[in-house]
Amino acid sequence: MHNIESYATSLGLTIDKPSIYENYYPIGNFDYVTLSVGNYENQAYYAHWQDVINMVFPLLEQKNIKIIQLNHNLQNKLSNCVNLENPIEPNRLSYMLRQSKLHITENGLDLDIASYNDKNIIFLDKENSGNLTFPFWNKQSNYIYLNDSENVKNINKIKPEKIAKHIFNFLNLDHKIEFETVYIGDNYQNKNIQLIPDQQNDINIPNGSLLVVRMDKFFSEENLAKQLSKHRCVIVTNKEIDLNLIQNFKPNIHTIVYFVEERDNPSFVKAIQSMGIGYNLMTYLSEEKMEHKKIDYMDCDIINQAQIFKKEDVEELKDLDVNSLYYISNGPVLSNFKVFKSVCDYENKTLTENPSLPSQIKENLDFWKEINNFHILKKIDINSN
Questions:
Q1: For the chain, what is the domain count?
Q2: Would the pLDDT of 383 be above 90?
């Protein structure tokens, strides 16, 4: 029973269609799809909206259809869409939704208003309560409840291309999707830009973003200092860094990630700890090799074991030829004025023109170190979908 029916029954009332006094909103003279995410929080409930948008954007742009993201409070703004910067009252929201070609939502008042306006709707919710909150007033229009249609309880298991396909279908756009999700790593949505500090040029990064400086791949204190003078950085290192440099740029150091290797320097870790610098200790060494080192770090934070995955460790990959698959990473790697999709591709010397597009995997050790940063896909026969 829908929530509205429950309220009506308990209160002895008859359900009638609501009315809304609309106010004009100057949105512009173009067709658009509306998207409302993170209704009660500043974070979207579904983690992969950006991947969905990236899939549908090229064709929608070609058809001059915009995507308007309605939640002005959304912490991580979505690219390739129009993000509203100011709150929108329900009467103006109704005007916008009535003009929309399709409404996509994570559930909330906007779903009810879209249903009142009899719009086609795609919705999901983290509580799996669609039987209580489905679009009650839809008459001629249709809706898709993604939790049911994809038969999942964890909404982040819904594959982005499935949502993209529903969007194309509702908009009557003929488009074949070339890739199907195989695996999405737990760290894939933590977007970042990694820098191998073998270059001195200025790097433009989005406001609020962190630059990850990989001193473990190329050690240059001069280039590190240049980046710290401009950006807030995470430093990844397996060597001691000049403590004067760290002290001078302390406000711009978010965290130091120190990898404990066979040749290590516990005094460096103790020094940055005494300076109040946030740090994480990591190692790829075996438990046996670490046993005699632990006493040196007894007064420091715990040393985390970094895992190098194997194919059989990843259920979705164990029966597949990994090198026949494609992937997208959680952010580019910059080195010597070149762009790579990942450290894996940096080691393979495989450049990328567009890091947001899938490219074929060339497996190496860094691929298995980084696998939690990846969205892995397989190419499918476009004549079959």
A1: 2
A2: no
Which tens digits make up the pLDDT trace of 357-377? Answer: 899 999 999 999 999 999 999
Q: Is residue 367 part of a domain?
A: no
Coil vs helix vs strand at 172: coil
CATH number (domain holding residue 163): 3.40.50.2000
pTM score, two decimals?
0.86
| Residue type for position 258 | Y
User: Cβ–Cβ contacts within 10 Å for residue 162, how many?
Assistant: 17
| Residue at which a domain ends, from 245, 271, 305 | 305
Beta strands at 374-379 and 326-329: parallel, antiparallel or unpaired? antiparallel
What is the phi/psi pair of residue 142, to 5°?
Answer: -120, 165
Q: E strands along the chain, which residues?
A: 31-36, 65-69, 82-83, 103-105, 121-123, 143-145, 179-184, 193-196, 211-214, 233-237, 253-260, 279-283, 303-305, 326-329, 333-335, 338-340, 359-360, 374-379
Domain finish residue from 251, 281, 305: 305
What pLDDT does 92 receive? 93
Note whether residue 38 is domain-resident. yes
